[in-house]
Amino acid sequence: MELKRALISGTLLVILAIVLLARFAPLFAQEPPSVSSVEAVITGPDDVAVGRTLVLDASGSRGIGEETQYRWYVEGVSFPVSRTVEMVYTPERAGSVAIRLEITTEIDGEALTAEAERLITVYERKIVLLADTSVSPEKIAVHQRTAEEANVYLRVIRPDMQTLPVSAEDAMVAAITNESAAFTGANGVLIWTEGILGLQALMRARETDPEAITTENQTVVVVTDRSLDTAARTMRGPFSVLHPERIVVTRKEAINPLISAADSDAFIVDLEQRDIDFSIVDEQSVAVRPWNLLSSLVNYMLSHGVSSQILILLLTLPIIATIIAFLKQVIGITTFGLYTPSIVALSFLALGWRVGLVFLLFILITGYGTRTLLRRWRILYVPKVAIILTVVSFTLLLLLGLSATFDITFTRDTIFVLLIMSTLAESFLNVQREEGLRSAILGVGETILASLLCVFIVSWAALQSFVLAYPEVVLLTIVIDALLGRFTGLRLVEYFRFREVFKHLQEE
Fold first, then answer.
1. What is residue 363's predicted lDDT score, i.e. its pLDDT?
2. Are 166 and 414 in contact (CB under 8 A)?
């Protein structure tokens, strides 16, 4: 029996050794040194205007040895157009041209060859299109085909990943910065995004690299489906930073006239002839007047790096507070005070209400579960809440890791929003301890409903644009709050709660 066990153990050890050897043998194997490979690398622009000189460079190629020869070939030409490390080429007609580089070098007596190819776009006019994820790729492809037929190069800059509302502008800035070379030689900039997100991102990117991203003396066209006058007022700050010739705010129907127009003046004339609505922002329209001081302050903040999303959140906070005050004083709903639902509503605005609601529910469930597990130990209230918040923070960490698998990115500011949202767990536990689980669940439910109602109201795009363009209207919330403060009638919920009493009073 012992011999049988020994044989079995030995067999298992041999099998384990074979498996480990097969797994790790490549790490310890001594491979013979291989001959260095040559990699051809072409550096330079990807597009050039008709009649302009294109310079491509091969000095970044790797693995170059002795007696190196360079041969540059242009599509349609059988002989090399250059035999040096650089190629200078002047295209004569618009279209796409394939440039091929062939490198021959000698390493340790062996001749090696490497090739590289680059497709160059030759254009008569170039327009840079800034688009966000709200614009479908199919729509962009249609306009690209139209531009190609008109010998216009429509260079599209668009974030690759879906982001949260609070980080959408950062994603757009990163996309513009990575494609800053696209602005070289551009005849105009077309912005097709939600609100002024694209214009704000262009402004921030230009402040980072003003030499590469040039918009001086250009016409910037902004496509919007909102009020033109309202949108134009929000562009005064970006105008003072970008210094374009003018900003034209118009509809998406103006994209094709922009592509076909010979210059910006012809574009304006074409808009007038086609009866397409537009509004122009120039030096005269950005002048500061006594009745728009607060608007000028908002535009000043926009032009000095303050995100439009942050300003929208700050300007809509009084509106959210007024809505919740109305719900509590007139309707009679029960929430965790006024501050908590306001913060939850702002969190939903920053994260998107779907993502925010999922995170909030996980925070509440984790907080309640941790408090239930801590009942068996006699722990004081403050340390207990500290433990609960610690567990909640680890839950948020796991949720962030899970979100990364779905390509949902979170910025540093988003993390602070989540941590602020976690304070609702303490309010939930306080009500549960004092009034019971049922009251706590009702309070959370009504708080979430009130927050969602506020989100659906203030996330209306037209309202956000109007508040950003006319921030003075936010002062009206003070008047509304004062009127609510003098309201002494019964709340709407109380009419249903005391309906039996009202019946008896009417009978008497």
1. 83
2. yes
Return the sign of the alpha-carbon dihedral for residues 276, 281, 282, 287. Answer: positive
DSSP 8-class letter at 39: B
d(CA 254, CA 414): 36
- All structural domains of the chain with their residue ranges: 47-123, 125-302, 308-495
Using CB atoms within 10 Å of the CB of residue 87, give its burial: 0 to 12 exposed, 13 to 18 middle, 19+ buried.
Answer: buried
Residue 18 to residues 8, 12, 67, Cα–Cα distance (Å):
15, 10, 49
Q: Which of 234, 239, 216 is nearest to 224 (CA)?
A: 234
pLDDT at 221: 93
Q: What string of DSSP letters covers 412-453?
A: HHHHHHHHHHTHHHHHHHHHHHHH-HHHHHHHHHHHHHHHHH
Give the lowest-confidence range in 1-10, 137-146, 459-468, 495-504. 1-10
- Alpha-carbon distance of 456 to 286, in angstroms, equals 32
Q: DSSP label at 253?
A: G
Positive/negative CA dihedral, 364, 366, 369, 374? negative
At 10, is the pLDDT very low, low, confident or very high (cuts 50, 70, 90)?
A: very low
Q: DSSP letter for 328, please.
A: I
Separation between Cα atoms, residue 422 and residue 26, nearest integer Å: 49
Q: Are 469 and 230 in contact (CB under 8 A)?
A: yes
Residues 461 and 400: their CA atoms lie apart, in Å, by: 28
Taking only the tens place, the pLDDT of each residue in 127-168 is: 999 998 888 889 999 999 999 888 899 999 998 766 666 667
Can you state the angle between helices 308-326 and 168-178, rounded to 10 degrees? 170
Distance of CA 279 to the CA centre of its chain: 27
Neighbours of 260 (CB within 10 A): 16
d(CA 331, CA 324) in angstroms, rounded, equals 10
Give 125-302's CATH code, choosing from 1.20.120, 1.10.3470, 3.90.1690, 3.40.50: 3.40.50
Nearest residue to 429 (alpha-carbon basis) of 355, 309, 316, 340: 340
Q: Which CATH class is domain 47-123?
A: mainly beta
CA dist., res. 334 & res. 500, Å (int): 22
- Asked whether 233 and 470 are in contact (CB, 8 A), the reply is yes
How many Cα atoms sit within 13 Å of 433 on the Cβ side? Answer: 14
Q: Which residue has the tokens 């602005």?
A: 183
Encoded tokens for 350: 């920053």
pLDDT tens for 30-61 read 443 333 478 899 998 889 989 889 899 998 88
- pTM for this structure? 0.65
What is the DSSP secondary-structure string of 152-179? EEEEEE--SS-B-GGGHHHHHHHHHHHT
Nearest residue to 137 via CA among 164, 162, 167, 169: 162
